[in-house]
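User:
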Amino acid sequence: MFALPALAALSPWRGTLGLQRTAWFLLGVLFTLIIGFRYQVGADWEPYLTMYANALDVPLSEAIEISDPAYALLNWLSGQVGGEIFLVNLVCGAIVMAGVIGFCRRQPLPWLAMLVAVPFMIIVVAMGVTRQSAALGFLLLALVALQDGHVRRFVVLVVIGALFHMTALVLLPLAMVVASRNRVWTMLWVGLTGLGLGAAILVEHLDRFWMLYVEGQMMSEGAQIRIAMNALPAVLLLIFRKKLAPEENERRVWVWMAIVALACIPLVGFASTAVDRIALYFMPIQLYVFSRVHRLFPDRPLKTVAVASVILVYGLVQWVWLNHAVHATSWLPYQFYPMVWAL
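Assistant: Predicted structure:
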């Protein structure tokens, strides 16, 4: 998974536009199958199996209360057609890959952006926290819409993402600070949308969320490292914002993303898992900055060194995680269900 975008990022040959589209499509299908047909992979594999089992043989009105609405509905529908947990994972895998690819293809070095996404966004998040990975997929598409000035589309995509995991609402205020026209009206209807959705989703789960993540001090292993991974590109963006994001509206989006990413640092000691889960939605800043870091250098040899350095650093990140992360054994060995079933 790491080698494919690495080879594409290093290759000087790009091919026709049609060939590029085919390559991205095939990569998306491959990664979706790897994510969707994983078997006993991920630290939360058993809890997700329990959610699926609880949605079987119950009315939809009961199933929808088991988890966040969209994810609960997906479990119930999969149970109705006998798709098991694999259909649920396939759909969520397709959503996150659509978001990742849609976001990466908008970057100046799209294959480098994809490479940055592999070690944590795809391997750890998409194959670990399924609900939040689906929410992240919608948020990546929402960020693309916001950069293009489509505030309403951004809000709709964030709301859909929140139906998979309520924490996705953390990005909703971005619409208020980015809208350049009729900002008062934008703030009003975005605020009302957030309050309405919060009334439907957040209130029901807020007590459980607070007790589990804050009062219970549920710890997230490696939270400080993951938040630091967001902090480095955030600092680079704030220092070199005009070079990395020359267009004003786009720059406004990412400056605020950088500010919040840095604000997570002092908060991680208060409730590491809660902050860690929220910080997942600011991981796109890694893809955005490191696919542009070559812009900071004046000549081609230094630009090439910058690209190679990003590949080496994220290769090291993946190696360290697979070999030394506390929960890496939940991902290793990777098992592909069709092969397991055939044996």
